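Quick illustration, no need to memorize.
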Amino acid sequence: MSSWKTPRVRTVLVALIVLAALIVLNVLAVLLPGHLRTADVSRSRMFTLSAVSKQFLSELKQDVTLYFLCENGDPSAVLTPFLDRYAAYPHVRVQVVDTTDEPSFYLQYTRQKLSNFSLIVESGKRSTSIDYGDMMHYYSEMLAGNQYLSSYANIPYGSFAQAIAYLGQMTGQDLTPYYTLYFDGDTVLTSAIEYVTAEFVPGLYLLGGHNEETIADEMKTLLDNYGVSLHELDLSQTDRVPNDCSLLFVQGPRSDLSDSELASLRAFLARGGNMILLSDGNVAQLGHFQALLSDFGLQAGAGVLWDRVETPAPQTEEDASADENAEEPKETGEESEPGTGEEPGETEPETVLIDTDSFVQQIPFDAGSRYAASIASFTHANNVPLTLSEPHPIYCTAKEGIVQEVLSTTSDRAYRTVGGTRQDETGPFTTGIIAVDETSGARLIWYSSASAFASGTSKTLGTGNFIYLYVAIAQLYGTYTPKLGDIPSSSLADPVLTVSKSSVTLTVVLVVLASLAVLGTGIVIVVRRRKK
């Protein structure tokens, strides 16, 4: 027994105890959560959550699931340690989705096609998606200080190749070296979690119950990308427009409002609600809709507007001579396509088109405009055409407290027909307007052609109409504003230390096997010495 008390034996025993402790610690380390097993060694601290995010996540009361979309179920080595930081909080769960096995998984939440390593954030209230490219952006300090190129200093990740190619053509040099890639994951993901758990988020409600047209698929896609929440509203089933209705959308009503529905809409507008109306000529016969519009000093005119199209191509002498001898179209009791000179009944146009060129010229672009400027400036600057089919006139009357600003008109060549009979009125006619009640803050945008914004319209009239409607909705909708403070971006210019799964497994095996080998060797030495 005394042999165990010798200094040599005690030393071996201490070594064995230390080795055993190291083995236990290594095994326990493997079982630790991911955020405790990985250290953020990047100089920019891109994997370290900001104080703002930490406080918000620690106070989170609702469960949130982060669906991590990965091809073949293989998560990104860069994002995994970042997401581990979020998963460390009790109400946040990260679930990897193998998009190879479930390629259409994202369609449950969004129409937007998501790239590899994208995220879908879901709570019991709502969901939102984050494309992988939305978590990064390029920034150039050099361009930010350039008087002429400062607008290109900040470029989204997905648009970088296009922007660099354009800048190369414009400047004659490759500006790629002057840009740094920044990681915005902390800002984007924490804001998304705040959005899906917020008690109140503004919504866009689609009015139903009056044989309205269904909102176009093209618009649904645009609105989904914009993050707009769509809801159905039937006022015959409720006596109030919901409090979270930021914008009421009405497209092509065929039947009138009831007395109670009119009262509900007036109450909604009286508390500062916003409304977009896309109407056809039959709205002139809907008395309660007309009464609602009259609150803004507006009235729907019956009939259809025609606008002559002038061909800008140069004419030959024969063409000019033929034009001089051409007869004006005969006025009859039936409608025919204006400018054709054909007898009524011989042609029946499928749609009546306002001259696109005249629309571009007639869209107001007044720097002094208070409400129409953002729509007009965007569409004017980008030369986006608006082409309306079967429009009817909008008549405006000055009213105290109401500001009216025209969004679109016909040319002065346009005229109106009612029941096939041409009226004496001449253009220009108003076909789009924004009216604002400066007392309540209510805003109304009205375009007098519902069919011009129907599904499939873009195939015949182009996408310009939907761009106009998209900009109008963006102006009135009022997106959800995060209440979080500023969260800084992290530079990805510094090299990031990443460890693969195979490396981690090999390290664990080596550590455990090495420890066991040393421990076994020590035991063998002690046993042999005891036998001696």
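Residues 34-44, 309-317, 319-367, 495-504 have pLDDT under 50 and may be disordered.
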